[in-house]
Amino acid sequence: METRKREPSKWIFSRELRDSLIEESVEEDGKVRAFVITPLGTRVKRLLFVGSVTSVSNEETMTRVTLSDPTGAFYLSIFKESQFPTNRVIPENFSEGQGMIVVGRLSTFKSQDGRIFFNVNPELVKNADPSTMKYWVSRSAHIARRKSLAIREAVKSENATADNLISLGYSSEEAECAIRAIKNYPNYNYQQLLESIEGSSASSETNIEVDQLKEQVYNFIKENDKDGKGCLYEDILAYIGRVGKDQAILDQVLNTLGSAGEIYESALKRFKII
After folding, report:
1. Whether residues 176 and 228 fall in one domain
2. Which of 106, 111, 115, 129 is nearest to 36 (CA)?
3. Could you give the number of structural domains in the chain?
4. Mind spelling out the 3-state secondary structure of 57-86?
5. How confident is the model at residue 1 (pLDDT cuts 50, 70, 90)?
6. The domain containing residue 76 runs over which residues?
7. Tens digits of per-residue pLDDT, 43-71?
8. 102 burial via Cβ count (<10 Å: 0-12, 13-18, 19+)
9. What is the DSSP string of the chain?
10. Euclidean distance between CA atoms 137 and 53, whole angstroms
11. Are residues 91 and 147 in the same domain?
C-alpha cells in the first residue's frame, strides 16, 4: 500500500496566520483534506515556528501552551494520552520564558460570526537557542517578503498566472501563493503585515543580542569589581567594544539585568551584582 506523502510544514509568522479568513478543502486520493489559506496565499496544514513560552496551563486531559513569536502568539494543545506516542511531546518540558521550535498540525474552530480560531497540535518540539530563533525569524521574513513581491507583480495584470510569475523568476510556490492571495484577499493591507514582520524581525534580532550578552556582562561586572565599589561603566563599554557590540546594546543589557534584580548602580556609572 502506497504511503501518502506528508504535507510540508510552512514557515509563517503568527500575524499571517491570525489574519487568515479562508479555509479550503482539497480532495486527494479519495480523501478530503482541509487547509487554511493565509493573506500571503500560503496553503497551511502543517507549520514550523519558533517562540518563547509565555503561558502553560495544565488541565485534566491536556496541557495548553502559548508561544509568542515577534508578531503575536501561537496556541498549542498537548493531549496527555497522545494518539501519537512517537512524537515524544512531553508537557513537562515546557517552562515560561523558554525558547522552543515546534512542528505541528493546524486545527481550526469557526465561531458563529465567522471568525476562525487556530490551534496547533504539536508533532515535534525542541528547545531553541537564540541563534536558532534568529535564523527562523530571518528566513520566515525572507519567505514573506518574496511572496509579497510576487503578489505585487500579480496585481499589475488582470490575467496574471503562476506561469507568468515563474517566468519572472519566482518559484512555483511563490507564484501559486500570489495567485491564491489576489483571489482570496483582494482588499488586504499587505503593507501593514510587512511592517509588522520587518519591525518585529529587527526587534527580535536586538533582543537576541541582549540575551546573548547578559551572562557575559554579568560575569564581567562580577570579576572586575576590584575595590568593592562597583565596576566602572567605561570598563564594561570597552569590553563590549572588544566583542563587536556598541553602547546602545550595552545600555539595553544593563537595563535588562537591573530590571531582573541581578545588578544595581552603586554609584554614578558604577555597577555591582546583587
Report:
1. no
2. 106
3. 2
4. EECCCEEEEEEEECCEEEEEEEECCCCCHH
5. very low
6. 1-188
7. 999 999 998 888 888 887 788 889 988 88
8. buried
9. -PPPPPPPEEE--HHHHHT--EEEEEEETTEEEEEEE-TT--EESEEEEEEEEEEEEE-SSEEEEEEEETTEEEEEEEESS-S-GGG---GGG--TT-EEEEEEEEEEEE-TTS-EEEEEEEEEEEE--HHHHHHHHHHHHHHHHHHHHHHHHHTT-TT--HHHHHHTT--HHHHHHHHHHHHH-TT--HHHHHHHHHHHHHHHHHHHHHHHHHHHHHHHHHHT-TTSS-EEHHHHHHHHHHTT--HHHHHHHHHHHHHTTSEEEEETTEEEE-
10. 16
11. yes
Helix axes 247-259, 233-242, angle to 10 degrees: 120
- 61/116 Cα distance (integer angstroms): 24
**Residue whose cell numbers read 502568539:** 73
Return d(Cα 216, Cα 220) in angstroms, integer: 6
Contact (CB, 8 A) for 72 and 15: yes
Q: What is the pLDDT of residues 115-158, one digit of tens each?
A: 788 999 998 888 888 888 888 988 999 999 999 999 999 999 88
Query: What CATH number should be reported for the domain holding residue 135?
Result: 2.40.50.140
Query: Which range has the top average pLDDT, 70-74, 91-95, 179-183?
Result: 179-183
Which residue is it, cell 510544514?
9
Residue 170 lies in a domain: yes
